[in-house]
């Protein structure tokens, strides 16, 4: 049965929920990041303002094991590094102030699990599916390729989908969900056909003025080297070695020391944070200069 706490959405008047219906699926309106606006019956989430953070959203109801949440990237902000984060939480979303990031602010807390989607899979028009398996694996499917983002999700309790509209990803649209059973397929309540992605959003340029490549021309397997995951993750689903990597792009080594003493940014991201925020992303202490330890004499 659908969770009784889900928000009501407008559905096709001819639709009648049955045993094959998973119930309506939208974003929970009571707990969103500080920069998030919801539209299209709370199925579209957009991060507004000139920022890469504060884009957290959650599903309006618990998602079942093996229920694949379908998502489309709507818009990109290519001036930032990093992209979408996807995961699940066993903590019921409530009306409260949310942290700026899913990783590491929530994933360092018990009951939260999230993985990183590569930038190349997060361009406007990209459609993704993510779900949790009975073995607690967080899985992602894009262009027919399935990969495990992390392991260790606790499937013994209700789980809400968690999405961080982060970095280059600035807007996403829920397309619904489906769950394959032995002899049938269950789906979420039908929703209106989504509007097409605008040509302007599809032709988003990167920071150097180059057009994003069509990722149908890429070897997707090269994004998931067997011995080199996107980001080091331990068996319990937590990121390891986080202090060595930039908290913005999560891929470059953090070489910049701020006035507060935090060494949490790579030089490229530090320049952007300085130009826009001028405060530490961890403690928010203002800073007026940068010290790049990679340039220090050995």
TrEMBL record:
GO biological process: ubiquitin-dependent endocytosis
PROSITE patterns: NHR, ZF_RING_2
Source organism per UniProt: Paramormyrops kingsleyae
PANTHER family according to UniProt: E3 UBIQUITIN-PROTEIN LIGASE NEURL3, NEURALIZED
One Pfam family from the record: zf-C3HC4_3
Protein name listed in UniProt: E3 ubiquitin-protein ligase NEURL3-like
InterPro entries, sorted: B30.2/SPRY_sf, Neuralized, NHR_dom, Znf_RING, Znf_RING/FYVE/PHD
Any GO CC annotation of this UniProt entry: early endosome
Residue stretches making up the RING-type domain: 246-284
Any one GO molecular function term: zinc ion binding
Source species taxonomy: Eukaryota, Metazoa, Chordata, Craniata, Vertebrata
Gene3D superfamilies, per the entry: 2.60.120.920, Zinc/RING finger domain, C3HC4 (zinc finger)
Domain NHR per the UniProt entry, residue ranges: 24-177
Keywords carried by this UniProt record: Metal-binding, Repeat, Zinc, Zinc-finger
């Amino acid at each position: 049965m659908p969770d009784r706490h889900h928000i009501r959405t407008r559905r096709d008047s001819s639709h009648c929920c049955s045993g094959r219906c998973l119930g309506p699926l939208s974003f929970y309106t009571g707990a969103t990041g500080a920069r998030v606006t919801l539209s299209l019956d709370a199925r579209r989430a957009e991060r507004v303002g000139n920022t890469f953070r504060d884009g957290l959203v959650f599903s309006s109801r618990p998602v079942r094991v093996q229920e694949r949440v379908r998502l489309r990237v709507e818009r990109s902000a290519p001036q930032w590094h990093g992209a979408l984060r996807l995961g699940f939480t066993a903590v019921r979303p409530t009306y409260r102030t949310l942290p700026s990031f899913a990783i590491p602010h929530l994933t360092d807390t018990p009951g939260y699990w999230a993985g990183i989607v590569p930038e190349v899979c997060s361009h406007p028009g990209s459609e993704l599916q993510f779900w949790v398996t009975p073995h607690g694996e967080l899985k992602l499917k894009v262009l027919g390729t399935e990969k495990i983002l992390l392991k260790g999700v606790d499937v013994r309790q209700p789980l809400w989908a968690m999405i961080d509209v982060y970095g280059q990803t600035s807007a996403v649209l829920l397309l619904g969900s489906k769950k394959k059973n032995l002899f049938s397929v269950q789906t979420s309540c039908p929703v209106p056909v989504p509007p097409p992605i605008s040509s302007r959003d599809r032709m988003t340029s990167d920071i150097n003025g180059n057009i994003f490549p069509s990722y149908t021309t890429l070897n997707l397997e090269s994004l998931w080297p067997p011995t080199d995951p996107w980001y080091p993750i331990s068996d319990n689903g937590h990121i390891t070695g986080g202090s060595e990597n930039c908290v913005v792009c999560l891929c470059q080594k953090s070489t910049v020391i701020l006035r507060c003493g935090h060494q949490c940014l790579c030089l490229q991201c530090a320049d952007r944070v300085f130009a826009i925020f001028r405060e530490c992303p961890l403690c928010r202490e203002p800073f007026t200069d940068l010290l790049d330890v990679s340039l220090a004499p050995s």
